[in-house]
Amino acid sequence: MKGEHHYDVGVTWTGNTGKGTASYTAYARDHVIQSPGKPDIAGSADPAFRGDPARWNPEDLLVASLSACHKLWYLHLCAVENIIVTAYRDDAHGVMREDPERGGAFASVTLRPEVSIAAGGDAGLAEALHARAHHFCYIANSVNFPVLCEPRIVVAG
Predict the structure, then answer these.
(1) Domains of the chain (ranges, CATH numbers)
(2) Which of the chain's termini has less CB crowding within 10 Å, N or C?
(3) What are the angstrom distances between the C-alpha of 37 and each of 8, 9, 62?
(4) How far apart, in Å, are the Cα atoms of 64 and each of 15, 49, 71, 123?
(5) What is the predicted pLDDT for the residue at 157?
(6) pLDDT tens across 61-107, in order?
(7) What Pfam families does the entry give (predicted)?
(8) Which residue intervals of 52-93 are DSSP H helices?
(9) Would you list the DSSP string of 117-157?
(10) How far apart are CA 129 and CA 80, in angstroms?
């Protein structure tokens, strides 16, 4: 498991409406994200920047990456600690602030996982494992803004 890992992703702009980038309004921000053996992801810019609201934007994908990485570590730690997770849903929220000099940057992301565990499970341990998952999350360890976690644990029965 230890070592160096590589990720190959292609992004192809599909937003040339016939005039290229002749003006700021002449082109669509649409693109396709591709990786060998995986389904394509339809991408665009945030609608605030003339993007298609029906497509994923880079900001959505960053928040989703943080949420998914946290979840994967959390489920692993629960399995190791004999906490039986029966459901997991995160309603994550990211805040990006525009900056006229740099363009913008994320100020924070808050994860709000609601986790259901089997009856008899240790709710206190289940909650505490979120801090350990955060500590190990590759994506959270790679960003320069706070990633907060506000978990809610539901014990069956």
Answers:
(1) 10-49 (no CATH), 58-155 (3.30.300.20)
(2) N
(3) 11, 11, 21
(4) 24, 20, 10, 25
(5) 78
(6) 999 999 999 999 999 999 999 999 999 999 999 999 999 898 899 99
(7) OsmC (PF02566)
(8) 58-80
(9) E-TT--HHHHHHHHHHHHHH-TTGGG-SS-EEE--EEEE--
(10) 11
Q: Which tokens is 15 given?
A: 């937003």
The DSSP H or E segment spanning 89 is strand 85-90
Question: 137 — phi, psi (to 5°)?
Answer: -60, 120
pLDDT in tens, 118-156: 999 999 999 999 999 999 999 999 999 999 999 999 999
Q: In this model, does residue 1 exceed pLDDT 70?
A: no
Name 87's Cβ contacts closer than 8 Å, sequence gap at least 6: 114, 115, 116
Tokens 């004999």 appear where?
82
User: What's 63's DSSP letter?
Assistant: H
